[in-house]
Amino acid sequence: xxxxxxxxxxxxxxxxxxxxxxxxxxxxxxxxxxxxxxxxxxxxxxxxxxxxxxxxxxxxxxxxxxxxxxxxxxxxxxxxxxxxxxxxxxxxxxxxxxxxxxxxxxxxxxxxxxxxxxxxxxxxxxxxxxxxxxxxxxxxxxxxxxxxxx
Length: 150
Ligand SMILES: [Zn+2]
Known about the structure:
By secondary structure, the protein is an alpha+beta fold.
């Protein structure tokens, strides 16, 4: 990112704000050479987001993986694909809105769970049973009971 006044690439971000519902990020930068300020716009595709997996390794965030996971949970549940895609976009947007560069896989799983719970209980239970290894400590049978006795 070059300074438009002196072409130096030596600058710092003084302020970041997401725009267009998280689809782009507006950054206010200050040139460290001429001290002038300028604004840059970055679309989310330019900002890599890494997912920290359970084993500590990292991979680039892939919204398609969220969709696949939800599709599997929603199998034969008569839920339109558009709805699943919408939930995935929603998750993606909130992640980018936080403007962090890394996110734990567990957190994404929790976000999916939360939305599936509102969408379809069977899908929720399926996803939770695959996913529960991430969340030791949660009493899954307790969770099931509370669902069945609603
Ligand atoms: Zn400058």
